[in-house]
Amino acid sequence: MKILFVASEAYPLVKTGxxxxxxxxxxVALGELGQDVRLLLPGxxxxxxxxxxxxxxxxxxxxxxxxxxxLTPACMPDSGLFVWLIDCPALFDRKGSLYQASDGRDWPDNxxxxxxxxxxxxxxxxxxxxxxxxxxxxxxxxxxxxxxxxYLEQWGAPRTPSIFxxxxxxxxxxxxPGVLGAVSLRHEHFHLEGLEFHGxxxxxxxxxxxxxxxxxxxxxxxKEICHTDLxxxxxxxxxxxxxxxxxxxxxxxxxxxxxxxxxxIPQPYSETQLGKKxxxxxxxQKEFNLPCYEDxxxxxVISRMANQKGLDLILEALPTLARLNAQLIxxxxxxxxxxxxxxxxxxxxxxxxxxxxxxxxxxxxxxxAGADMLLVPSRFEPCGLTQIYALRYGTLxxxxxxxxxxxxxxxxxxxxxxxxxxxxxxxxSALSAAMERAVSLYxxxxxxxxxxxxxxxxxxxxxxxxxxxxxxxxxxVKETA
Length: 481
Ligand code: ADP
Prior knowledge:
Elements lengths: L1 E5 L11 H15 L3 E7 L2 H6 L1 E2 L4 E4 L7 E7 L6 E6 L1 H4 L17 H17 L10 E5 L6 H8 L6 E5 L7 E2 L20 E2 L2 E3 H8 L2 E4 L2 H9 L7 H6 L4 E3 L29 H11 L10 E8 L5 H13 L3 E8 L1 H13 L4 E5 L3 H10 L2 E4 L9 H7 L3 E5 L2 H6 L12 E3 L4 H15 L2 H13 L4 H19 L1
Parallel strand pairs: 1-2, 1-7, 2-6, 7-8, 8-12, 12-13, 14-15, 14-17, 15-16, 17-18, 18-19
Antiparallel strand pairs: 3-5, 4-5, 5-6, 9-11, 10-11
Helix pairs in contact: 1-17, 4-5, 9-12, 10-11, 10-15
């Protein structure tokens, strides 16, 4: 089967969060199942530099009227996965992050940038003489790709079944309806059952309404977005729609997140050599100027600083850290106010708290390897990947009971299966109580090791998720034939 996988980021070319990990790994896992998968990404400068260009760019003309665009065939540098990069300097060649300028505001032309991504996906899907490769299925991911099935519908193109995966329903791609013409959408689609969401044009809703099937990244999040206000206003659409919503949790790329062979960590280790993990802990304490106490529990966070992630709860729970004689390392970036609060907290309790504000992939590996615990106090969490990586590194997760965290972590109260510590309420006191439970187990080294080994043995390989996606594609192809 031929599958076109469309996303706005993919590791190792460009990454701001979990979507990149998924887009870098799931297509590869599908390839290993014998599928012919090609990835389509915007040609950001970083992606153009890192990808291995494999042939002549194909001119796309000036499809949006804002500049010339080319489709450049390339390969991923690690996996060799085929990737098409949309090289459109007017839209993608700029400094700043993928979605925002350096002042933290969304790029004002995001509607054009991601309309181009969706439009090229639709062009490839129509196939014909265009590039000599026509997918049987298109897999779209998040709002940046939501217009793909709308263009196919508008063009009256032969039906290529499409799947739309929600990685985070809070990001809805909302724009003023005045841009409809600029992105070549017909006004007739702008209504309550179409692209309109509370007076705005929503690219997310476009995907939800026009794709043939919707998936999201964990079974629990699938239920939550249908039946609670975590659906962000889309609950009705998701429950009344005929197409159905499937929740399949993400996997981990264990070639990249592998403590026995991780090139980024000072001391590789396995579940039978957990003593070696201490070398990583000491190195991490040193790197962050924390006292190198071997017996001080070392907690960690690797996260975007967005309201979703509940890091403000940690801020309020900091006194617990001192009371437990624990240390905390935070690696994150995002909300400037929160960054400032953590900066001053770190200055006032230097023996207990150290922070790195920014994005650093190798550092995320060193933290996973060196810390004893990973905190994920999210208000909501579609799947979450850091806790899955933490399990493999024997770094026990302390997580809020929500979304994919429920599907991947088992509370320690289940004595035979527990792999971490869960709490219900999004409050500092509930988080503190979970931290206390974690530290009290940590003080019993034999029991701690048993749980570490169990956690390291949990398997969230991509293969299982890839098989479920393949079955879904096969079913859709049959249904739309
Ligand atoms: P989300 O996609 O909501 O940001 P996930 O847990 O699904 O959260 O995925 C986050 C990914 O981004 C993980 O691979 C994690 O290691 C990485 N990450 C998050 N923040 C940072 C950071 N500051 N530096 C390096 N990697 C980070």
